[in-house]
Every structure is written in structure tokens, then in C-alpha cells.
Write a structure and sequence with these properties.
The protein has about 150 residues and is of the alpha/beta class. The chain has one domain: Rossmann fold. About 40% of the residues lie in helices and about 15% in strands. Strands 2-1-3-4-5 form a five-stranded parallel sheet, sandwiched between helices. The longest helix has 18 residues. The N terminus is likely disordered.
């Protein structure tokens, strides 16, 4: 488990319930403190750019971003585009984690550089299992790119 200590996850989702379920499932792969939850895209931009209320946060990029599509202020697709067009952020894996099955959202997500598109299951046990699979791959198996700031 030691190699997971520095694997921070940024979860951007406006649903408090979905965020709580995701945290519970991902906690199997490391401490809950490794998961930062932000509830809108504008605040996520501030977090990633270390500005505003996040100006004093520890430097470094998350190892994974889990991103909802439908959110207030800045939606997930806009945020994804900003991440993948930023030289300092573009290597961060981004998995869209959303209830949207709209083909246009799926296509746009991949065109903008998403590393995956997962539709949130509506059944509690299926959602938890989906989050465990995401955690197993992205936090245990996958080797992240390390930024050289």
C-alpha cells in the first residue's frame, strides 16, 4: 500500500451522495485523505491552478481526476478541455464518471482527451463495485506520469 500514499484523487461531482459513495469505495485503495472532493468545475480549475482558496494547497497534480459531466458553473466537458489543453495538467488521467449516457457527451469526452467514460450505475452495490474497479486500475495497477513542475 506504500506506493499509493502519493496517489491523490480529485473527484469533481456536484452530487454529495455520489461523492460520498465514491469516497467509501475508493478508500479501499488508500486513506480517505487522498481524495479531494470539489462540487463544481470552477472550483476545480482553482484547485488545479493552486489559486483562490486553494492557493496554499500542497503542490503537485492528482494521480487521477474523476469528473462528472453535468455540473454548475463550469461543466465537466469544459473542465476536461481546459485540463487537456494545459501543458502542466494534460498528462493527468481523467475518467468521466457521470449519469449521462448521451452519445454527444461520450464522443465529446473522448475527443477532448478523456481516458475513460463510466456511466454511474443507479443501484448502490453496482456503483460501489464500479468505483472499486476504477480504484483498482487507476490507483493500484496504472503507473502515473510524474510532473517535473
Amino acid at each position: 500500500m506504500d506506493h499509493l500514499v502519493n496517489r491523490q484523487v480529485l473527484l469533481v461531482d456536484d452530487s454529495m451522495d455520489d461523492a460520498e459513495l465514491a469516497i467509501n469505495a475508493l478508500s479501499a485503495y488508500g486513506p480517505v485523505e487522498m481524495i479531494t472532493v470539489i462540487h463544481d468545475g470552477a472550483a476545480a480549475v482553482d484547485y488545479l491552478q493552486c489559486r483562490g482558496v486553494y492557493a496554499g494547497r500542497a503542490s503537485g497534480n492528482p494521480a487521477l481526476i474523476l469528473l462528472d459531466v453535468k455540473m454548475p458553473k463550469v461543466d465537466g466537458l469544459e473542465l476536461l478541455g481546459a485540463i487537456k489543453s494545459d501543458e502542466k495538467l494534460k498528462t493527468i488521467p481523467v475518467v468521466m464518471l457521470t449519469s449521462s449516457r448521451e452519445q454527444s457527451d461520450i464522443v465529446s469526452s473522448y475527443r477532448l482527451g478523456s481516458n475513460g467514460y463510466v456511466v454511474k450505475p443507479m443501484v448502490f452495490t453496482e456503483f460501489v463495485e464500479t468505483m472499486r474497479k476504477i480504484g483498482a486500475f487507476w490507483l493500484k495497477v496504472n503507473e502515473p506520469a510524474h510532473s517535473r513542475g
